[in-house]
Sequence to fold (586 residues):
Amino acid sequence: MKNIRNIHERVNLALLKTLKDARKTPTPPKLAASIDYAIFPGGARVRPNLCLSVAEACGEDDFAIAESAAVALEFIHCASLVHDDLPCFDDAELRRGKPTVHRAFGETVAVLAGDSLIILAFENLAKGCENSPQRLIQLIKILSKSSGVPFGICSGQGWESEDKINLSAYHQLKTGSLFVAATCMGAVSTGEDPEPWVELGARIGEAFQVADDLKDVTYSQKLTGKPTGQDIKNSRPSAVAEFGVDGAIKRLQDILSGAIASIPSCPGEARLCDIVRNQAKQLMPSFAADKVL
Amino acid sequence: MKNIRNIHERVNLALLKTLKDARKTPTPPKLAASIDYAIFPGGARVRPNLCLSVAEACGEDDFAIAESAAVALEFIHCASLVHDDLPCFDDAELRRGKPTVHRAFGETVAVLAGDSLIILAFENLAKGCENSPQRLIQLIKILSKSSGVPFGICSGQGWESEDKINLSAYHQLKTGSLFVAATCMGAVSTGEDPEPWVELGARIGEAFQVADDLKDVTYSQKLTGKPTGQDIKNSRPSAVAEFGVDGAIKRLQDILSGAIASIPSCPGEARLCDIVRNQAKQLMPSFAADKVL
Fold:
């Protein structure tokens, strides 16, 4: 557990350091405050933690690269949440136990906060890769593929505006793609080939989505920090709607076992297995946590 | 004039080629169509034309780099227009003579089209710089600085949500910053130092904003392709409100003379002067076009 806490601290320190620039004048005060508000205090930081965990497992030779990758992942993730909460999307009131960005700062500022975070993600990557421009090219390709069109979050969100939707493609784009980016960017940050790390990210992403669907049905708003029952309310595709609660839990177990089995051979393999196992426990709804692995 | 037409064609071909990816499945059809719609048929392409003109003047050694920079500038510009037209900002009905993106495709798709274009801008830069990763770092720093916070378009737009606003800082951020990026990215694309090119971009950006303020007052909607009289309607800061129509025209002349005088010594200096002079004529309202330079 000590290691996870350290990674979490490393992520938060890197996020804080990066946002210092956004607070400088001439940033308009409301916009600067909304960007801070979208990032802090933050959720579980699953994606940047995963990125740094993989980088540490591969053996880092330049700490700045993986940290800039971790920050970029969290910025893109938070930007997608801010825009996804907007009135024209989910019109969400709460996120992480507090009013959503547009409720706290207004809709225009929320649109701009999302835009600014996307741009900051790429800017920060470039700064982190000063000494490794070749890795920057790979990192930007992975990050943009996972967040834009046709293979990333934007495509996933875009499917919500279509009449016909494919559940698994939708989840893969909207949630899975950034988890794949997290493991692959962790590997690329250390100069490793990203390909062997795709499966770990894909499986954790899939598990995360199933866990989210389960929480939406079985948890209260107090526990999740955001309104629950939204999938049914918005007629959104969901693993629970497709497989039922027990079927979804079984599916979660299978996915997580596969995730651990997929970890490639690397210097910190054993520790990374522990980290993923601990992460898995946190993903499972509490009433089923003992059934994890 | 032949040269300008060639550059314009080069820009449009590069834009088309880049958007091919966004049309691939699994891009949701409405989102893919809205991205095309935001870029084509397009406006004057002033920023990408300027970027390519500077690159040609400096002597290009790799055409893909300057083209990816030009595309990135146009994508960021169009993304900012799509978001700026949203109901929570200007609630604009028309842009370039046709319904705005959110009027044609809905608000959610418009938010995602803007996000996708920002991400595509950076993705495309990385692809264009495969053989020059060191230039990629510089290009991303310039593009992100000019589009995000604290020094870019997002900050400029953010000032519209504040009570106190500084006219010149506002224009510099919202419009000027991307023109500075255009000249500097053109230079960096060829391996040149960007610093001597800052003034040309800044002056053209300033001229463009003054010309836009003049058109908003003196032109009809039919001529500009978008509703005019918006600055007064939305109580927005404007050069015409500050200096009057004649004062604004005088200011435009001074700025453009300064722009041409600022062009650094380079292999294609004479041709670049012609291009900027021609651009200046197009910027001036028709009743004052003979007064340009």
